[in-house]
Amino acid sequence: MRSAIPVFCVVVLLLAASCGNMQDQEKLAILPQLKRGNLVSCGRESASFGSTDFAVTIDGKLKPDFNTAVSLLHSFEYDEAEKMFAGIIDRAPDCAMAYWGVAMANFHPLWSAPDSTELEKGSAAVKLALGQAGGTKRETDTSPPF
């Protein structure tokens, strides 16, 4: 009996390669059920999540939202961070780092291992991020961090 793993790997690679050729709306359709909506905070309404100035290639009008999303991510507010990154993707579907943010928001090993839905969403987001053109070397680098 032949293993299905090599066939699966080929299919995944073909899907990842095709992401770069898809229209923006098709890209969005691949991501399963991004969390959306208003931010929900358990603390004060005027709560601050710190100060972040993340270097990212994005329209200047979206930069504050991106920085808030990163701050939420680093404050372990994964669902709320995903909402912010989804909003950025809706307005700037070519922002590879917003897809990175979605992937990061679905990987939270301190609380519990990601379930299969979170892994699929994160994997799809990474594939879409890799399919984006442009950006800085840091944003397009695919080499391991160490």
Summarize the structure.
By secondary structure, this protein is mainly alpha-helical.
Counted by DSSP, the helix tally is 7
> Looking at the structure, what is the overall shape?
globular
- How much beta, percentage-wise? under 5%
Integer-rounded radius of gyration? 16 Å
Relative helix content: 40-55%
Poorly predicted residue ranges: 1-23
Total beta strands: 0
Order of helices and strands: HHHHHHH
Distance between the termini: 38 Å
The whole-number mean of residue pLDDT values reads: 74
Question: How would a textbook summarize the main sheet?
Answer: none
Based on the structure, what is the oligomeric state of the protein chains? single chain
Category by helix and strand content = mainly alpha
Describe this structure in words.
The structure is a single chain. The relative contact order is 0.16. With 146 residues, this protein is mainly α. Residues 1-23 have low confidence and may be disordered. Helix 5 (96-105) runs antiparallel to helix 6. Helices cover 53% and strands 0% of the residues. The chain has helices at 5-19, 24-30, 63-74, 78-91, 96-105, 116-130, 137-140.
Key words describing this protein structure:
disordered N terminus, mainly alpha, 146 residues
What layout of secondary structure does this protein have?
Blueprint: H1 5-19, H2 24-30, H3 63-74, H4 78-91, H5 96-105, H6 116-130, H7 137-140
Helix pairs in contact: 1-6, 3-4, 3-5, 4-5, 5-6
